[in-house]
Structures are given as C-alpha cells and as structure tokens.
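**Sequence with structure:**
===
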Amino acid sequence: MRRIGRRRFLKLAGITALTGAACPAALAAQADPALRPVSVPLPPPRPLAGLHSAATFDTPLPLPGDHSFMGLMDGGARIELSATSAPLLPTDDIPPAPPLCFETEHDRHPCWNPTLLLQRGASLRVRLVNRLDAPTLLRWHGLLADWRMGGHPVMMLLPGASFEYRVTVRNRAGVYPYHAIAPGFSGRQTHQGMAGLCIVDDEEERAALAAMDIEPLGASGTGAFQAALPSPGSPGMGPSDIPLLIQDRRLDRNGVPVYAPSLDDRVSGLVGDVLTVNGVPGPRLDVVTRMYRLRLANMCNARILHAGLARANGAPLPFLLMGTDGGMLERPLPAQRLFLGPGERADILVDLRAASPGDEWYVVNLPFDPMRRAGAASGGAGSPGEGEAARLLRLRVVQRVAYDLPLPVRLCDFPAAPPMPQGPPRRLHVSRGEVMGRPAWLLNGQPFAMRHDTRVDLPDDFPAQRVAERKPEVWELSNDAVSIPHALHLSGYQLRVLERSGSPAHVAALAVDPAGRAAPDTGIKDTVLVWPGETVKVLVDFRDGPDGQQRAALYSRMLECLDDGMVQDVAVP
C-alpha cells in the first residue's frame, strides 16, 4: 500500500472530434427520406498539449467489479465512506483514485467511489465521515428518501463530522448516482472525483433482461476490471450490462484536474477539457455479436450530452431506449440520439448481431447548439467545448457468437400515471437578474430561497414553495430566453413530463408525440432539462413521498449554479 499524488490521475487524455450536423430523430427519418442521417466523418485525433494521447481508445473500460475503482459492493450491508483527499491505493491499481473521492474498504482492500448494488426493498445504510478540510455532503440522486437522508443541501457536514444515511429503497430498478453536494463546494468536489453509482435491481427488470440473455450487473459475482471475452460457443459469458458514468474535467498541462472556474463558469456551469467514462479518457470495450445494455449516467458538472452511436466513418447506429431516470419504459423506443442533462440517465439497448469481427463502433457526443445565452462556458483551447462532437467509448467487435433472441416488444407493467389535478399549474420561471447589485438566478423574479438550518418546519414568512396537500400537482417549468439550459431536479419525488412547448429546433426535432416530448420524456423522471425559451409541464406525485413532514429541494443540477444559490426549499406536509 502507498499513497499517490494527484498527478497519476488521468495519465492519458485525448479527444477525437466529429464534424458536421447531428443526425435527425429516428422517427423523423422513417417519415421523410430527406431527413435520413448522413455519415459524419471523423478527423484525426487532437491530443492535448503536454499529455499523452488516448485518442486510440485502447484503455480498457473499467467495470464495477472486484477491484478498487468503482468496486462493486453490496449496498444492503453497512458501509462507511470517507470523503478524502488522500486515498490509499494499491501500487498496481488502474486507474488511480481521483484527487477527491469517497473511500471505503472491501475485503481488506481500499475501494473508492464504490458501485453499490441494491435490491428494491432493501435498506441502504452508509455512514459518511468528512475527512476533507471543507464541508461536504452525499446526495443520493433520485432515491425516494426522507429529506434528511437523501442529501438536502442544507444537511452538509463540517470537517471531521459524520452522518449515517438510512434509506429503505422504494425505487424501481434503475441507476441512481451519488455525488457531493454542499453549497459553495458541490462543483469543486464533484469535478475532482466525488461521484459514484447506486444501482437498484428488482424482479421485473431481471425478467426483462433474461428474455434477452443480458445478465444483470453483479448477478454472478463481482465481475472483472476489464470485460472478459466469451469463450467460443459460450455466448452467455462476459458482461452485457454496462454502466457508463460520464464526467468531464479540466486538466493542467501535466494532466492534473484543476478546478478554477471563471466568472462565466460560475454563471453557466463549468465544462471540462476531457471527457471520461468510468474514470478514464479514451476507453475501449471489447464486445461480441449480441445485444448489450449500456447505462448512460451524465455526472458532468454542467455539460449537456447529445449521445448517439456511430461507426468510425460517422455512420449512425440506431438503438432502443429501454429506460430513463426512474427505470424501464413499458416498451423500448427506437432512437438515434438523445439529450442528457447533468443528473439524467438513459438505458439503451445496442444490437450488434449484424456486426463482424473487426468492426468498431463509438458512443459519441454529437454536435448541437448549447444555447448558453447568459454566459459562455467552454472547454480549454484545443478541447471539445460543449456542443462540439467527440468520441466517448470505442466498442471493438472481437468475436461472432450464436445469438438469435428477438428484440423485446414489451418490457414491463409500467406504473399508471397519477390522476390529473384540476386547476391551474404551479408556474416556476427561471431567469437571470440581480440581487443587491450582484448577478443571481431568480425564480419567478425573486431570489431562490433555501433556509440555512436543519429544521423541517419552515416559518410562514419564509418564501418556500408550499405544497398544500399530498396529491399530484402540475408544475409548469419555464426558462427565460436569455438564459442557459437548466437540468432541474426535485429531491425525494418523481416526475412525469406532460408537454414541451417553445422548444428550440434541435430539441423539437426529437419529439415523438404531439405534446413535443422526446423519447426519454415518456419515462419516469427526477431531472428535467429545460432549454432557454422553453416551457415543460410536469406532473409531480406527492402521494407516495416519504413519511412525515418533508423539506424537499428544487435546484439546478448545473453545479456551479447550485453553488451560486440556485436552490429552492419546497415544504411538503
């Protein structure tokens, strides 16, 4: 065992860009041959100054398993996590720990940012010890938890303090990330590495995966650091359920993550130089000719992803959307691209049965207009700024196997929608303004308001959003035209998107129904991306919330905006 410095983090970095326009929606392509996607050629790699290039995409993709980084752990067992800036690592572990991380011990070995696997109905028990020199907090993003246990921003821990989170998991199967969230420190701590995955499993999802011969993560042990190839004639072997935790970081010329946001970054959110997947830039996953589930989780500070699949020559590969933030859809939906704001997740099914050994596909970030009208966040010189295209992950086909299972027609009994309430919606409009001469984000023309104490009962004169009864409500979330896209998240509750209106052209092009909803909007959500000038109506179900009086938080998942005070208390009886 030895301590290592931060300079081993991200030993390789490189970006390969795409050029050209983004491909249109799958349904639009079917309706109008003129809108069918065209190939988007890939230019040569663009290595970053002072760094070795990872543009060959040969670094094995780390997968949750029996190793230190993202090590797979039983989330039902009592776990102690230390928020630390000096993790202890084995000398041969790859990749090294990030500068800041959540560290624990597993089988007498250090483990950082573990992947926690939980069954629906199990109890999550995690004790967090703050060993940093700044306040911190664990946010269980999307879990239906009591406001104190889910990580309300006001519950942050001072240096040296500890807190035990206890959550009975009531969520459907899905990916529920965790990350640092302490006002004033969220952006720095998450950017520097304090993020991981909590994965919930249930019988309904296992049945759907069994029909496709996809083995759920952790079903046969802890897996391996690198994807094991199936042996000849054994198509069921090897991982086929692949979580992808995506982050971007800014690096100095020596490859060290540096968090030094500019004024524009504090307004619009920090967008990094280098895109990483499961902690490494330029990763590779060896695959065979079968069906795979890729589980995309956008854990960037502020970067919006325009995710798709493409060959090296830019030819797109359609896929099926299987699930969103809150679990599986009733039926898989065809798609060729989708937007993921920070905090949003998407499970996609990738069919490689028609591929041949030697073929290569990439998970890519397609070009788009990021619409940052209230500031100009961008990556560093020579790196992909938000809205530019880049490769994220190389899928290398190495073997043909016998796999003839049909594509699923139906996945699950999708939960019925809550009854529609009567009366006007609750209108919440986000804009940029000034408070006492200082630029600030506003909600309905007033400053966002979070009371800085840990009481559940908010005084009557405090400007909280107040839910009168535990019943469904329609919320109308709108964003000013001179703004930035905001990924709005309501802690402790789930949402159903009812309608999008005023959407920009590149968002409206992805609509799959007359209400303007994109494919991910048809699922259960906890985070909703609202573009400048856009209005999104959502149905919030307060009937099935945690017991007792609650103090939820509505905030922008653009972490620099959160650090700038963009958090609104919501009182629930």
Observations:
- The helical segments are 26-31, 147-150, 186-191, 203-210, 263-268, 505-508, 559-563.
- Residues 203-210 form the longest helix (8 residues).
- The two ends are 51 Å apart (CA to CA).
